[in-house]
Design a protein that fits this description.
Layout (H helix, E strand, L loop, with lengths): L4 H6 L7 H8 L1 H14 L3 E6 L6 H15 L3 E6 L4 H14 L8 H15 L9 E5 L17 E5 L8 H11 L4 E4 L11 E4 L16 H10 L8 E5 L8 H12 L5 E6 L8 H9 L6 E5 L3 H10 L2 E4 L8 H8 L4 E4 L4 H4 L7 E3 L2 H13 L1 H18 L2 H15 L4
Parallel strand pairs: 1-2, 1-3, 3-4, 4-5, 5-6, 7-8, 7-10, 8-9, 10-11, 11-12
Helix pairs in contact: 2-3, 3-16, 5-6, 8-11, 9-14, 12-15
Amino acid sequence: MSLAAPDIDRSTLGLHSLAQYEPIIGRKAADRIAGKAERVGTLRVAHVSSTFYGGGVTEILTPLTLMMNAIGIETDWHLIQGTPAFFGCTKKLHNMLQGADIDFPEVDRQIYEQVVFENATRIHVEECDAVIVHDPQPLPLVHHIAERRMPWFWQCHVDLSSPHPPTWKYLQQFVGQYDAAIFSLPEYGQNLGIDELFVTPAINPFSAKNVELSDSEIDDCLTQHGIPPDRPLVAQVSRFDVWKDPKGVIEAFRMARKEVDCTLVLIGNNASDDPEGETILEDIKRSIDDGIIVLAVDDPILVNALQRRAAVILQKSTREGFGLTVTEAMWKGAAVIGGNVGGIRRQIVDGENGFLVDSVDQAAKRIVQILKDPALRQRLGRRAKESVREKFLMSRLLEDWLDILARYQRPV
């Protein structure tokens, strides 16, 4: 049996042209972006990250690299490999960049730097016009490229508002070798002595995770995964990570359930470069009861269906570089409650298109308020979707990169 066209589209990586965005963003914006692409001309760009699977960086780079190629910029995406010990080290770095006070001894530094060096021996970017390195995992790569005629950019996607000082001092020796550092928000700036640019992430509205679904498709998907339709759904979609505060979500839900009957669904997957995820998942499972469903699956259609059907979407992070799961839920017109941190507060205007909270108690009260007031839920959702259309779609991210490449384009 052959697949129908919508099924095929949802099963691909998601190559979408600028023309497909025009009905959403308008002709004027589409023409402006196309004009910038023509002025940049034919370039070759390389992105370098640590995983093709799981996490926000992958969610960004998959559609972005495809769109860049579609408009004439030859764009590669290189993956660094690592051992479990290496990814254990880089997970520490990730946590310390977000403020964790833990040790990063000399042996960890040696593992980290040696594995990146080994990757550098087989990542060939000499013919590129720009190289973009993402997050701490491949950061020292720049140190091993002898001749850098092209600009190198380091893009940090995590919350860098209060990094662990000794760790940040150590990493600056590598960051300082780049032409520019790119952060999600101005408050993450670090006075590095190199150019600092600020680019907010974005989503692909046509991906399987974000495309429109019919009510019957949503019903079938939720039924298939054992999510009951008899009570309002409260959900959080995120990696199983301590910074996402899953235990705080469970506690807030239990407080809210005393006033309004509802079901909590926690769904997520583990990025291949995150060795802590499985341990945190098992810890969560030990603390649940019959009213809480935990799903560790990689199913974008399920995420889509859940975000469309849930009465409340939570993202109660205690640190968050940006929070694409917030963006995705807002695009679907969901009522979102987010932690008052990082990029979440850049997306949510408290009381206008969602709610920001600073505690478990506040989260519980907002859950109850939304569940008891369907009109409020609809009003927040309408405003949320419009804010994403205006600010956080992949077409806007593409335009940001066209501006950066034009600014740093060097004469032949």
